[in-house]
Design brief:
Blueprint lengths: L5 H10 L3 E7 L11 E6 L3 H14 L3 E4 L5 E2 L8 E4 L7 E4 L2 E5 L4 H10 L2 E2 L11 H7 L2 E2 L2 E2 L4 E8 L4 E5 L15 E9 L1 E2 L2 H18 L17 H4 L7 H7 L6 E2 L2 E3 L7 E3 L5 H19 L8 E2 L14
Helix pairs in contact: 1-2
The structure holds flavin-adenine dinucleotide (FAD).
The site of flavin-adenine dinucleotide has 31 residues, from β3, α4, β9 and β13.
């Protein structure tokens, strides 16, 4: 069955407490403001995730887990896959001493602020990373020298057949910007944080926030870093530009455009939607930047942003999964 079939949406409505939206424009759920229509489930409770996955499994319908859409490029034609969008309903926060349990749908900046306000450090570094808790864990997002793998103790997931499981930290194969949790939906995570003096936390958060404001085109739709930084021993020995942003800038590409998307004049590793950008434009600019940087510096930039195909598959599969 197709995820777009009205009968599939009806069957979902019959089983779930959360909302089911048909032909819902995915641009609404992406910080790029790009993406065509799909059938979207907004789970009201964690059980909805298992019920939706079980039905998709029974009907042979592909699915795609979506958080706050801040690291993703969705197709212009939308998705012929069930989109399970985690947000409100799965955004609870619970504290037991140094251990905090966070719903996957909670925005990470909110988790950062709430835990810091209670005098705990560890998540405070995510104050300016605009994703969800689930997306952060899945991507092993990080900044200011910390990432999710530093604090995670357990991750509660639902597998493709709709079964729940709890993975302890040693079972999650975290690496740089990857958790290895492909094929599962994260519904909750438990992290261990460390007590910190309030004035130090407040000061660090203010500094990090100020740094973000200066270097991020927050007033334009974008998805954060488009490319990962090059790595490996041969690369680390090189002089000159090293990060993806420095390489793009040194290649003279700031302000380059394809259709409605532009290499941000503020931060070269961010592409911004100037208002009319399509997924095809973004992919075109990615290829143009990759070609120019490779010709100039011999470095092949790999996208960090997830490029998604029409059935919810990853178009950069060598990276994820
Ligand atoms: C202005 C800006 C600044 C940014 N700065 C940083 C930064 O400093 N460091 C950094 O690491 N990232 C940064 N990002 C990228 C992004 O915010 C992070 O990767 C974030 O963690 C993605 O979370 P999300 O909820 O938006 O995920 P989405 O974009 O919705 O999804 C990303 C991937 O995670 C999967 N996913 C999402 N939720 C779940 C779930 N519950 N279960 C299973 N899989 C899931 C999706 O299927 C997809 O493959 C930035 C983005 C922007 C727009």
């Amino acid at each position: 069955m197709s995820a777009r079939a009205p009968a599939f949406a009806e069957a979902l409505r019959g089983r779930l407490r959360g909302e089911v939206r048909e032909a819902e424009p995915l641009a609404r759920y992406s910080t790029y403001r790009i993406g065509g229509p799909a059938t979207v489930v907004l789970p009201a409770v964690a059980e909805d995730v298992g019920l939706a996955l079980r039905l998709a499994h029974e009907e042979g319908v592909p699915w795609f887990a979506l958080g706050l859409g801040s690291n993703i490029l969705l197709p212009d034609s939308g998705l012929d896959a069930l989109v399970i969008r985690l947000g409100k309903g799965l955004d609870r926060l619970r504290q037991e001493g140094e251990r905090w349990t966070l719903g996957a749908g909670m925005p990470a900046p909110l988790a950062a602020r709430r835990t810091a306000a209670a005098g705990f450090a560890g998540l405070h570094v995510f104050v300016g990373v605009p994703g969800s808790v689930g997306g952060g864990v899945y991507m092993n997002a990080g900044c200011h020298g910390g990432d999710w793998s530093d604090v995670v103790e357990t991750v509660t997931v639902v597998d493709a057949a709709g079964r729940d499981a709890v993975r302890v930290r040693s079972q999650v194969p975290f690496t740089y910007r990857r958790s290895g949790l492909e094929g599962e939906v994260i519904v909750e995570t438990t992290v261990r944080l460390r007590p910190e003096e309030q004035h130090r936390l407040d000061q660090q958060i203010a500094e990090m926030f100020e740094w973000r404001q200066r270097g991020t085109p927050f007033n334009q739709p974008c998805c954060g870093s488009v490319f990962k930084n090059p790595s490996g021993p041969s690369w680390e020995r090189q002089d000159g530009p090293r990060t993806a942003g420095q390489l793009i800038e040194a290649s003279g590409l700031k302000g380059s455009r394809v259709g409605g998307v532009e290499v941000s004049p503020m931060h070269a590793n961010y592409f911004v939607n100037t208002g009319t950008a399509t997924a095809a434009d973004v992919r075109g600019l990615i290829e143009q930047v990759q070609r120019t940087v490779e010709e100039r510096f011999g470095a092949r930039l790999e996208p960090e942003v997830k490029l998604i195909g029409a059935s919810g598959e990853y178009l950069n599969p060598e990276l994820s999964p």
